[in-house]
Design brief:
CATH architecture: 4-Layer Sandwich
Distance between the termini: 43 Å
Oligomer: single chain
Radius of gyration: 18 Å
Number of domains: 1
Strand content: 25-35%
Length: 266
Amino acid sequence: MAQKDKLRLALMRGVPRKWDMKANFEVFLEMSRKASGEGADIFVTPECWLDGYAAPESASTPGRLKEVAQDARKSEFLQGAAETAWTGRMWVCFGFVSLEDGGAVGNAAGLWNREGKLMGVYLKTHLQTHDVQFRAGNDLPAWETEFGKIGIMICADRRWPETARTLRLKGARLILNPSYGMCHEANEWWMRTKGYENQCFIAFVHPKVGFVVNPSGNLAAKGEGADPGILICDVDLSEARDDNHIRDRRPELYGIIAEMPGKPKP
């Protein structure tokens, strides 16, 4: 099957309720129906939408997080996300707390295809003080889709330039960025720079703002508001080319990037 270039993104926004999975999932279903009605190809929620990203709260504990953590093999909510993808005939990127083997919890985003098949679960790889209750992910996958490869980075992952660059070098022409933290003007410029440097599209999805950055570093679309809603944006992934910044890199000069200061080389 030939790779498709043109697609329609639907980025969800709205402030979820802390710890209230049922209420948050109902909002997800309502917004997903709107996205499907708009002909969306990919529907994306903010970070940890299901539990309202409760981890940073002072009342949060590893034990309480386990109460909202979802086992991808058993969760009724995640089965609901799969059914939403299938009935809406669209890809779904859904943020939740995952229950990992061994009992650890992770800050996760699952990706389901149009048939409702779970393509994979990404765990946030860069954890800071508010996320230390989570287990960090150890991979930056770029999943094969009908639109070519798509990558995911969650919220603070975007602070490290290596995250987006790694996904781009793995072939991702579109990077989904479910978030909950900073959404100020400076953040928008940071994301525009990442799109420009990596010659790709980045979809930033936050409870109060959503926007899409194109490979030229410009905004393709932007929507704001704390009430539930969706931002629709049509993109042409053929604009994400491998010339210029990608072609003219000098990898032989960058070895120090992968070194940790003070840690001896193997």
